[in-house]
Amino acid sequence: MNKLLVIATVCLGITTKTFAQNPSKDWLIAAISDRSAVNVLNNGKAIELNNGLLARRIQLSPNATTTSFKNLVTNEQFIRSVRPEARVTINGKTYNIGGLYGQKEQAYLLEEWINQLTGKEQDFRYIRHEIGEVKPHFTWNCQTWASNKKLPTGKSVNLFFTTSNPDLTGIEVVVHYEIYDGIPVLSKWVSVTNKSGKPVKIDQVVNEQMAMPEEESAVVGKPEKMKKPQKIYIENNFAFNNAMRYELSDQATHWKIDSSYTSQVNYNYETPCVLEVYPDLGVGIELPPTATYTSIRSYELLLDNYDRERNGLARRKMYRTLFPWITQNPIFMHLISTDPATVKQVIDQCAETGYEMVILSFGSGLNMEDVSEANIKKFKALADYAHSKGIKLGGYSLFSSRRIDDETDVIDPVTGLPDKGAFFGHAPCLASQWGIDYLKKLNKFIAETGFDLLEHDGPYPGDVCASTKHPGHKGLEDSQWVQMEMQKQFYQGLNAKGVYINAPDWYFLDGSHKIGLGYREVNFSLSRAQQKILNRQNIYDGTWDKTPSMGWGFVPLTKYQGGKDDAILEPLSEHLTDYKQLMIQYYGAGVQACYRGPRLYDTDATKTVVKETIDWYKKYRDILNSDIIHLRRPDGRDWDGILHVNPDLNEKSFVLLYNPLKDAIKRQVKLPLYYAGLTDKARVSIQEGKAVTYTLDRDYSITLEVLIPAEGYTWMVVYK
Fold first, then answer.
1. 219 and 266 Cβ atoms separated by less than 8 Å
2. If pLDDT is split at 50, 70 and 90, which confidence band does 21 have?
3. How far is CA 135 from the centre of its chain?
4. Each residue's pLDDT tens digit, 422-439
5. pTM surpassing 0.90?
6. What percent of the chain has pLDDT over 90?
7. pLDDT value at position 410?
C-alpha cells in the first residue's frame, strides 16, 4: 500500500448492540412514530410518562416517588433506590416533597417491594395531578433564517403537594414534568405558591434527586475521582461563567454519595451515585403572599452508547428540538464604525453580496445606554435604512468587566468592599439601581430604534453581591438568584420582540442564540496562515456538543489585539485567497464568523468573491447547518476535514477536506454515512461535478481517493 495513502476513520459505535443498528429505527436518524403519553396505572396508584424511547414511572400512593426511569431502547434502568420527588427549605427548615421509605436493599429495587413502602406524615403529600400538553416557557418570535422553526410537542404532568404542618399552611408545591415527542428527554422543575397570607423565605429548592446505578466499582477512591453515570446527560438553566461549554458553565448539577447504600463496593460508601439539581448558593428570596417561585428547570437525556460522536449528536438534537431558537443563524458582518455614511455603505454592501445583518461592533462608538432623543434618532434612521434594504441592524453592549462606582459594583462578601470580588474583577451588580436602569435603557433603545440584534458582552456571569443597599436584592443570600432571573427575563423579553442575541454565557435554555466556539483573542493577531489552521481547530473542537449555529468565530479584517500586517486581510483585494478560504472554512462548517472591519469588499474582484461565496453557502445552507461528523482534527501535518449529515434532505451529506501542506496530495478518505441515513448506495459529486455511485460498506461508509490542492481545500456533496 502506498505510504501516502491514509485512511481516516471515525468510531461510530454502530457495531454494539446498545441501539438500533438499522438507520430506519434509530431516533437520531428516523422520525419516531410513538407519541408522548402520560398513562395512569394500577387503578390510579401510579402514572407513567412514556414516548417510546424512555419511560418514567411515579408511584402516587401512599405518596409520590419515582420508582422507574428506563431507557426503552437499551432496556437500562436508572433507578436503584427511591427518593422524594424534590426537597425544599422554607423559613430555615427542610422538607421532602413526596417520598416513600422502607427499601432495605439500596443497590436495586424490585417491583414487589413498591407496595410495601410507606410515607412520612411530615413530608409534603401528593394530592392530585393534571395532565396537559407541552407549552412554551416564553414567547419566541423568530425574525431570521433558522433551520427549525417548530416548537417541541409532547405531554406535561403536574403533581400537586400540600402539607398538614401548621407552619406551612397555605404553601402549595407543584412538581412539573414534560416529556417530548421523538427524543429521549424529560424535563423537571418545581414551583412553590404562597397562599398563606404572609411572606415566607425560600432558602433552597432541590428540583431533582435520583439514586442511580453507579458507573464503576471502585473499592477505594474519592467521589471527585470516580466516574459519574455516563448514560444520562443532565442540563439545567442555571449555567454561566463564560466557559462556552455547558459542563464548565453548569452551576447546579451535583453527584452525591449515598451512605445508606451499604452494599456498594466502595469501602467508605463514597461512590457518586445520587443526582441532585439545585443552585450551590441557594435561593434566599422572600416569597410574598399570592406569589409563585419557579425553580431551575433540568433536562434529562438518556443515552444509549459511550461513543463521543453519537452522544454529541444526541445533545445537538436535544438543542434543535427543545430550544429551536438556537438554529437561527443569520449571516452577519461586524462593523467598526457608527459614522452614518459608513454604516449605510456597509448596509449597501451587505445587500449586494447576500449578507443579512450588520452588527455595530465593540469599538464602533455605539452606546446603547445613551437613550437621549438625538442618539435614538440617529440609530433609528440607520435601522430604518437597513430595513429598507432588507438588512437587519444591531449592536454591541458591555455589561460586566467594567467598573461603575462603589455604590453600584458588586460587594465582595469577604472584604465587604467593591474590590475585584467579581468574576471578571470589577463588575456592576445587575440588581443595583444602575443595573436596573441599564436593562431599562437597553430595552428602550432597542424598542425605539428598531434594532434587530444585541451583541451582549459579559451578561450576568454569576457574581454574588453582599450589598444590602441595592434595590433589586436584599443581601448576599438572594443576590445570585435575583440577578440570574433578571438576566433571563431580559433575554426572554428580547425574544418576544424578535431580537437576536449573541452572548458569551450559556443562556441558551432561556433565549440566547449564539456563543463563541471557544477561542483565545490574541490568536487573531497571529498570521493568516496560523489563523486558518487554528480556526479549523476551533470549529472541529467547538462542534462536538454544539450545533454549527450555536457558535461564532472571528475574522479580523483589520488589526485586532495588535498583530502585524500578515495577520489582517485589509486591503482585501490583496489577500483574496486567504479571505475566501477563511469564509469557506466558516460558512462550510455552518458557523458564522465576526468579519470585523470597515467594509466587506474594496474592489469589484473582492465583491465577486464575497458574493460567490455567500451564494454557495446559501445554495447549501440547509445541509451546511446540519450536524457535523468529525473526520480528522487539523494538525498542519496532513489533511483534515468534517462532513455534515442530514437524512431529511436531498443532500444527505456535505464533505469539506483541507490540505495545509505546500504540495497537492492524494488521500483515501473514509466517509461514515450512517447518520446520513444511507444504507445501500451513495452518489458523490465533487464540487458539483458528475455524481459517481458507490456501494456502502457494512459499516455504512464509503472510501474515496481524493485530490486536495496545495494549501487549499475541496468539497463534495453526497446524495442517495
1. yes
2. low
3. 20
4. 888 889 999 999 999 999
5. yes
6. 91
7. 96
Q: What CA–CA distance (Å, rounded) separates 46 from 38?
A: 10
| CA 651/CA 493 separation, integer angstroms | 37
Confidence (pLDDT) at 268 = 93
Residue 7: is its pLDDT beyond 60?
no
- As given in the structure block, the three cell numbers for residue 118 are 410507606
Q: Which of 4-13, 412-421, 444-453, 504-513 has the lowest mean pLDDT?
A: 4-13
Q: DSSP per residue over 585-643, as a string? A: HHHHHT-EEEEEES-S-SSHHHHHHHHHHHHHHHHTHHHHTSEEEEEE---SSS-EEEE
Run of H or E including 481? helix 476-496
Beta strands across the sheet bearing 392-398 = 500-502, 453-457, 392-398, 357-360, 332-335, 592-597, 551-556, 515-516
Please state the rounded mean pLDDT for residues 681-700. 97
**What is the C-alpha separation between 198 and 117, in angstroms, rounded?**
35
What average pLDDT does range 261-267 have in this prediction?
94
| Cis preceding linkage at 571, omega within 30 | yes
Calpha distance 712→693 (Å, rounded) = 26
Question: Mean pLDDT of all residues in the chain?
Answer: 94
- The torsion angles phi and psi of 111, rounded to 5 degrees, stand at -60, -40
Q: With 70 as the cut, is the pLDDT of residue 19 above it?
A: no
What is the C-alpha to C-alpha distance for residues 57 and 41, in angstroms, rounded to an integer?
9
- According to DSSP, residue 711 is labeled T
Q: What whole-number distance in Å separates Cα of residue 438 and Cα of residue 568?
A: 35
Cα 21 to Cα 560: distance, rounded to the nearest angstrom: 49
- Minimal CA–CA distance to 283: which of 97, 475, 507? 475
Could you tell me which residues come within 8 angstroms of residue 187 by beta carbon, excluding any fewer than 6 positions away?
Answer: 177, 178, 180, 297, 298, 299, 300, 322
Cell of 20: 438500533
Q: Identify the burial level of 367 via C-beta atoms within 10 angstroms of its C-beta, where 0-12 means exposed, 13-18 middle and 19 or more buried.
A: middle
> Does an H or E element contain 381, and which?
helix 373-388
